[in-house]
Amino acid sequence: MVTGASRGIGRALALAFVQQGYDVWALARSAEALEKLKAEAGDALRPLPLDVTDEAALLAACRAILQAGAPHVLINNAGISVSAPLAKTRTEDLARVMAINVTAPYLFCRELMPAMATAGGGRVINIGSIASVRGAAYTSAYCASKHALLGITRSLAVEFARKNVTVNQVNPAWVETDMLAQTVSTISKTSGRTEVQARETLAAMNATGRMIQPEEIAATCLFLASDAAASITGTAIALSAGDFGG
């Protein structure tokens, strides 16, 4: 099961797991985008439109998934960011970031992990960020949410360690996604730099000096879902984060 599956990292995750022989529940807000994804992925992909901020709908989605059987892999990928100085970060912006980046993953874990354990075990993979382990100006709400997600990851890893359910987090630096494009546009508008210059600035922040591709994150998650990773739990895996791997 992959949340935020219609684009970016989530889309790469859904396609990669289908290609490896998994049946994939793909969750996202846009039914149209999910149908396009299904046309590309085939019948192994099961689209499930959902706004993760709607708790009743989220719980109903979990019930529908469990009726078909507990998932072996749960990937909490859906996320949003808000970029603003502290004084201009509205309460409603903070609440939405926390609802999507923290509350929704927590609820999916709460509703699905016990069934995964009962079914014999599984893998939970949370998609975090370099912001899970370091701070950055103008992103206090986002950083708070990703730090909280890492706390959930580490706590549940301990709670389910003897139930054959591993819980890990992947913390990439800058990834080539729509969120990156929005950040580039914001930097360009507020700083006077061109979008090319803004992209170069962000790429330079990555240890490799280039943007991470979504498919690289998918490959990491496939490893965490494999038998080879059965003893890895409570770990935050940094991608291109340099000294800020956590």
From TrEMBL:
GO BP annotations, alphabetical order: monocarboxylic acid metabolic process
SUPFAM superfamilies, alphabetized: NAD(P)-binding Rossmann-fold domains (SSF51735)
One Pfam entry name: adh_short_C2
Family of this protein: Belongs to the short-chain dehydrogenases/reductases (SDR) family.
Protein name (Swiss-Prot/TrEMBL): D-beta-hydroxybutyrate dehydrogenase
Species for this entry: Hyalangium minutum
Taxon lineage: Bacteria, Pseudomonadati, Myxococcota, Myxococcia, Myxococcales
